[in-house]
Amino acid sequence: MEKSAVVFGASGQVGSLLVTRLSEEPEYASIKAVSRSGHIAKLENLPKVTVVKGDALDRASTEKLCSGADVVFNCVGLPYSSKAWKSLWPPITDNLLHAAGSAGAALIVADNLYCFGPEGNQRMPLKATDEEFTSFGIKPAVRAKIVREMLQAHRAGRCKVALVRASDFFGPNVTLSMIGDRLFPSVVAGKEVKLLEDPGFVHACTYLPDFVRALIAVSNDPESWGRAWHVPNAPAVTTKQIIEKSRSAAGFDGAAKYSVIPPFMRAILGWFIGPLREVGEMSFLFSTDYTVEHGDFLERFPECQPTPLETSLKATVDWYRNDYGRSDRD
């Protein structure tokens, strides 16, 4: 049966690639790509895609956009701000649950691992079936709250829901990430990478095309709904090893060139640099080995094998070298 999809956050890093891949899927006959401006140049000429204006904060508009849909994807991205997350994620989540539920559509959510908080550091590798969520901080606590609400909505029969969780992701077109434009521009220029945390811990990372492939796989399998899934990642390595492998892919010797900003300096700079201040409560992500269990996902979706790290880093390095910073890119 051919399906129709609505993608909220279609102009973002995850949403734009998802819309592109959905347009290539035979199961999908039509895709609405929702953005607040109503214009996404790189998506407007794709087959089966209609770019529409909408805002997940507008309940009536969201319900109207979801009417008749089979699947609704939540790929909304918010500014990396505790204030924004605390005030905006709850109504966005409530509106999408209401709209998808009213339409009889499944809500497939591009999720992250924040809901486990620092307590999750004691339960590595993190399991998708683990529902021991955190109350720590602001951003982790907000994510934990809305995850509980979405799972409860499914179990109460209000809306069909599935969560697809990525770790820190990277890849072509990915800039806003812990391993995005903080790392790769320096690598491709052969310069020293400035880091905020100890690069010696193993850290699971998700390649964006693998994330999108997992979202589509779950959307096509109703029996997989009602729970969270963790995206398959290549075997986790340290940030230092990512720098070394990326330098090698960029044609430099593999020795990592980096420096770590001392904690006291981060604290001082955080008073003046908002994004740096926001990273503070997330330091637990890089204070120990951070790994993810995805065996159950591969058992159900064996076609979703993770891209080898050398392959994904080469594609990322090539994009940063050839396309990053171009004025004509969306």
Question: Which properties best describe this structure?
Answer:
single chain; 330 residues; alpha/beta; Rossmann fold; 7-stranded parallel β-sheet; 11 helices; 16% strand; globular
Calculate the terminal CA-CA distance, rounded to whole Å: 33 Å
Instruction: Give me the CATH architecture of the domain at 3-174 and 205-233 and 291-307, please.
Output: 3-Layer(aba) Sandwich
- Principal-axes geometry comes out as globular
Instruction: Give the beta-strand count.
Output: 13
The level of helicity is: 25-40%
Q: Would you give the CATH topology of the domain at 3-174 and 205-233 and 291-307?
A: Rossmann fold
**Low-pLDDT ranges:** none
Q: Mind telling me the CATH superfamily name of the domain at 3-174 and 205-233 and 291-307?
A: NAD(P)-binding Rossmann-like Domain
Figure out the total of helices. Answer: 11
Give an overview of the whole structure.
By secondary structure, the chain is α/β, with parallel strands linked by helices. It has a domain at 3-174 and 205-233 and 291-307: 3-Layer(aba) Sandwich (Rossmann fold), CATH 3.40.50.720. It is 36% helix and 16% strand. The chain contains 11 helices and 13 strands. The strands form 4 sheets. Strands 3-2-1-4-5-6-11 form a 7-stranded parallel beta sheet, sandwiched between helices. Helix 3 (82-103) links the parallel strand 4 and strand 5 (106-111). The mean pLDDT is 94.
